[in-house]
Predict the structure of Amino acid/amide ABC transporter membrane protein 1, HAAT family.
Amino acid sequence: MVDLLQLVFAGLSQGAVYALIAIGFVAVFTVSGVINLAQGEFAALAGLVAISAAGSGLPLPAAAVVAVASVAVVAVLMERLAIAPVKRMTTLVSLILTLGVSTGLKALMLLVYGPNAEGLTPITPGGVTVGGVSIRYQELWILAVAGLVALAVYWFYERTLAGKALRACAEQPVAARLVGISLGRASLTAFLIAGCVGAVAGVLASPVYFTSWESGLTLGLKGFVAATLGGLVSVRGAVLGGLLLGVLENLTAGYVSTGLRDAVAFLLLIIVLVARPSGVFGRHAEARV
């Protein structure tokens, strides 16, 4: 029982990181219909920037702020330079464009930060044992911050006029334009939110899972699977999908084989796309994936 609880808690912590990445996918897709394959690179870049900033002498909170701000700027530039100029954006075009940006960011990170994986200093070092389950304080920080960020994004999209206006741009773009909603500004805001959320995920995950120029690929794929479980339109579904994926991965690694850990995500993706394209936790019956 202790082993089971240990695996479940570790899975929840890891799943919270996936959930934040998934929220970034949802934030962009619900507004512009773009599937942003560079979302994982936002997290990796934030982790590397925070490590570099902390290594230069900045306090950890200041390094985290610098990392989030830097990635937010990258996300905004990506939207303005790669997404906004395209007049007829389709899913295929968005995949090609964002894959190109993802590849460019990976090459830039490799050039600037090198090939070695590094880890940021934990917010609170050490841990505690509860009922035989070993819990690192950093994992508690991941769960707490991820929960607060998820609630903030959910509240913005579901409860505020500005958030509903952003969603209207994807659901009824013509009507949104007629009532004075700027589609360009809405897309820019969505990418800004996605960049900030992805950066937070990267900074939180770095002390536990380490960061390298290629870690964004895995994070992005896992985040995409989690977002797909929510149909790519539900923040709540993205969070539940991320937590479920994290727990299933750790249970598979603990009771079956560590080599099958990554296969869980892709097996889930295939099952969802075949059996329920609208997502397991999706809000609408209409297929959006």
